[in-house]
Write a structure and sequence with these properties.
Elements: H1 2-45, E1 60-62, E2 66-67, E3 73-80, H2 83-87, E4 90-92, E5 99-101, E6 104-111, E7 117-119, E8 127-137, E9 143-153, E10 169-174, E11 182-188, E12 190-196, E13 202-208, E14 211-218, E15 223-229
Antiparallel strand pairs: 1-3, 2-3, 3-6, 4-5, 6-7, 8-9, 9-10, 10-11, 12-13, 13-14, 14-15
Amino acid sequence: MKIDKFFKWVWNINGLILLIGASILTIIIAYQLTKDFFREEARSTQTLSLAEDSKGEENWSLGYPEYIEGSDYYYLPLESDTKEVETKSKVYNLYSSGYSATRAKNVIFLNSITNDSTWLFESVKQIIINMNALPFRMENDQVVTKAIYYEVINNDTNKDGVFDINDKRTFSLTKDDGSSYSEIISGYNSIVKASLNKDGKLFVVYINNDEVHSMLIELDEFTVIDQKQLPKVKSS
């Protein structure tokens, strides 16, 4: 009898553990479904009138505001919520690691002191696949943003009907407020490295077809001060 009671007690404990585990799992699943539902609901209702759309086919939203170090400015990406744009724009996503669909079609710069705002481009006919500020620490330890660089796809260069990583890109620069937009490199395949050296000049390594080039850019006037194709190593 004692053995029967023991096994009955063990059975009851196991049942209780299974019941608690199932309850916890149900709560987690319900929470995740509810969170996803409200996220999609918020996304679908928070569409904004930020770009001309005569056909009424676009829904626009703004990405998260990012502060530009050492300035009075923030920037916010303009994103399209339409599935057509998402499926036709398979490029590098600024806001998460790796290659994925992005809807960044333009960027707006906001002055937090004067409340002025300026768009980077006049239209939404391009895709911005990369955007990075270039902060620099001065001798007095003050940090200023020397420039902002962009990788932009302006055209379907391989004529496959899609703006993606297989299309040629344009490497551009602006000041920290988004002004003085200047195209530095056009029609290349990818940027290997783009960073400031200790003198505050921009050092860039990029690939165009099967050739690798390096470049130095002075950022006061966005002037290319040196550019070279990397030499080929001898086979023997």
